[in-house]
Design goal:
One of its GO terms (cellular component) is cytosol. The protein is α+β, with helices and mostly antiparallel strands. The chain has 2 domains: about 5-180, Fructose-1,6-Bisphosphatase, Chain A, domain 1, CATH 3.30.540; about 195-325, 3-Layer(aba) Sandwich (D-Maltodextrin-Binding Protein, domain 2), CATH 3.40.190. It has helices at about 5-10, 15-35, 60-70, 135, 205-215, 235-245, 265-280, 310-325, and strands spanning about 75-80, 90, 95-105, 115-125, 145-150, 155-160, 165-170, 175-180, 195, 230, 250, 285, 305-310. Strand 7 and strand 8 (about 175-180) form a beta hairpin. The chain binds 6-O-phosphono-beta-D-fructofuranose (F6P). The site of 6-O-phosphono-beta-D-fructofuranose (F6P) has 10 residues, from loops. The site of 6-O-phosphono-beta-D-fructofuranose has 10 residues, from loops.
Length: about 325
């Protein structure tokens, strides 16, 4: 039996190990609150009151505060950026690592007792000795030194990459530690399962419309096999399913809201999940281009996402090329 602490001792630098340990410790606090559910007064909107008349805080606000507070007190952490906060938070000037996180991905699932999770990405701080700024965070995903997610589902788990494959850990409530359950997670090359919010269909670009049309035609169409569809509405859960039993996940560019290229955020969702999926042998693109090669221009920028089974991700890219349409509508 290998604990997370033992795994980190042999696989990570002391600095990265320390930051992952801080994240893991905080995740157990979040997991405990989720276990208590309504009894912890975490349901409903922030600013509301529970039945006892006490102030309620939504769990995404609480999770954000817990993670931010823990990370800025870690001496190895130079700065933190959260999906929930407009500005980055500088931490320790001598720190060598920057952390971005989505404290509670899929948070609309909390009130209905469904899966949510915490996604994180660790980048090197190249300006050690100076107060971290947003510019320090604007690095391509290929620079990530660690990434992963904590999933709070029927059990709590951690999926982690340090750039040499993907490991999965399961949280043991008795010992309050994460235990390694798979040190070589692999995404299968082929799949017959896809995940997309199909209600956005009319807002997609032509190649994505064509792709989903072909999948829904099943064995009566050009793909010549039937596909199944799943959508948990929490990226964390859809990606977790893909790591366990295969699949392709998409949140493509759409024209639903002017000026928003799809929904997901590059620094908090796109890059960390792309790092995990690629390290497990899958692919992660915007439909055409590798997500981890995006040069970020803004900490909260959005990115179209197509990730998972390499055969499907390549098929989507080929359709875009055949139709001469880039992932965000530009001509190819
Ligand atoms: O980023 C937020 C998120 O909750 C993702 O985790 C999830 O994949 C997506 O939004 C769900 O979007 P929709 O509300 O369109 O189903």
């Amino acid at each position: 039996m290998t604990t997370l602490a033992q795994y980190l001792e042999t696989h990570a630098t002391p600095q990265i190990a320390s930051v992952i340990t801080t994240l893991a410790t905080t995740s157990t606090a979040i997991s405990n609150l989720l276990d208590k559910g309504a009894l912890a007064g975490i349901h409903g909107e922030a600013g509301g009151e529970n039945v006892q008349g006490e102030a309620q805080k939504k769990l995404d606000v609480i999770s954000n505060d817990l993670l931010l507070n823990a990370l800025i007190h870690n001496p190895n952490c130079a700065g933190v950026a959260s999906e929930e906060l407009e500005d980055i938070s500088p931490a320790n000037t001598d720190g060598t690592l920057l952390v971005t996180f989505d404290p509670l991905d899929g948070s609309s699932n909390i009130d209905i007792n469904m899966t949510v999770g915490t996604i994180f990405s660790v980048l090197p701080q190249k300006n050690t000795g100076n107060t971290a700024t947003e510019a320090d965070f604007l690095q391509a995903g290929t620079n990530q030194v660690a990434a992963g997610y904590f999933i709070y589902g029927t059990s709590t788990m951690l999926t982690l990459t340090l750039g040499k494959g993907v490991a999965m850990f399961s949280f043991d409530p008795l010992s309050q530690t994460y235990i390694l359950i798979n040190d070589n997670v692999q995404v299968s090359k082929t799949t017959a399962e896809y995940a997309i919010n199909a209600s956005n269909r009319r807002y997609w670009l032509a190649p994505m419309q064509q792709y989903i049309e072909e999948l829904t035609q099943g064995d009566t169409g050009v793909r010549n096999k039937d596909y199944n569809m799943r959508w948990v509405a929490a990226m964390i859960a859809d990606v977790h399913r893909i790591l366990i039993r295969g699949g392709v996940f998409m949140y493509p560019f759409d024209t639903k809201i002017a000026g928003k290229a799809g929904k997901l955020r590059l620094m908090y969702e796109g890059n960390p999940m792309a790092f995990v999926i690629e390290q497990a042998g899958g692919l992660a693109t915007d439909g055409v281009k590798r997500i981890m090669e995006y040069q970020p221009t803004h900490i909260h920028q959005r990115v179209p996402v197509v990730l998972g089974a390499s055969d499907e991700v390549e098929y989507v890219k080929a359709l875009h090329e055949k139709m001469g349409v880039g992932a965000s509508g530009e001509a190819l």
